[in-house]
Write the structure tokens for this entry.
Amino acid sequence: MVMTNNSASAISHPNIAFIKYWGNKNEKIRIPKNNSISMNLDGLETRTRVTFGIDNEADQLVLNGEEIDGEGRERVSRLLDQVRITAGISDKAKVESTNNFPTGSGIASSASAFAALSLAASAAAGLSPNIKELSKLARTGSGSACRSVPAGFVEWFAGQTHEDSFAASIAPADHWDLVDCIAVVSQEHKATGSTGGHAIAGTSPLQEGRVADAQRRLDLCREAILSKDFKAFAEITELDSTMMHAVMMTSTPSLYYWQAETLRIMQAVQNWRMDGLQACFTIDAGPNVHVICPAEHSAQVAELLTKLPGVQKVLSAKPGGPTKLIPE
Ligand code: DP6
């Protein structure tokens, strides 16, 4: 079947994981070693428009107004191929995507990018997948993207196969007034991205222990979120982040994402908490620090962070909604 100019647009938020995804059982289709838990980040967003039926030999990708070739475009094409197979079409597509947050600001854009792409491409191809189907599709583009599909606080069930590896909401966005204050210390592109990192996670002798203990951390984190127990949440979130970084630092080759400023912020946050301020840190595959706190403390936390040496700026985000279609 050949279609003519069918397009759709979707919006998606990035997410921050409290229990991290690091390492896969199946690299190709991104079946992770352990479940993960995250929160979508409101206010930060990717908007993506997909148009099938363009007169071109290959798919076209335009990111923040700039035409992208190479591996970035191929990764998008591989996801579009799956949509084409399901919809029974062969048309090439134009994908236009913009982020309202700075690229390289330490906020993973691949999560919101592949979640928005999955929904816009499905709708443009005439499909209407449910949240589970959409989450599975997004996962194949970027693992953490499956968690940007459902709303609010989300768990990704690792599963064993494509069919049973997807994310679902464990609490809506308005369940708990948390804020992620993101302390940006570097805007440089990281040398080794997440995909390369997942592939070598198993070379760390610590990865087996991290994965073996994951169920306990997941249960503690899920329970802390559901009961809004900040103290328990803070302890398990920091532990999980540092366990992932211990794996990163002890893999071959070793990955050190922390900079001097990163560690200084981690120590400051722990000192503030000892002094009674509710705040905790978590760090992804980069040097920037996500400081999570209840909304009533977020202005104070953001101000304190701004004063720390090396902090270039602080972005703030509340729990965000699901990936959704937007009018063209
Ligand atoms: C450190 O989802 O970016 O942010 O599947 O290769 O695209 P790919 O990896 P990605 O990995 C995210 C890693 C992390 C932790 C997390 O978000 O759980």
In short: Residues 178-317 form a domain with the Alpha-Beta Plaits fold (CATH 3.30.70.890). Residues 68 and 212 are 40 Å apart (CA to CA). The pocket of DP6 is lined by residues 17, 20-22, 30, 36, 108, 110, 142-144, 194-195, 198, 284-285 (CB under 6 Å).
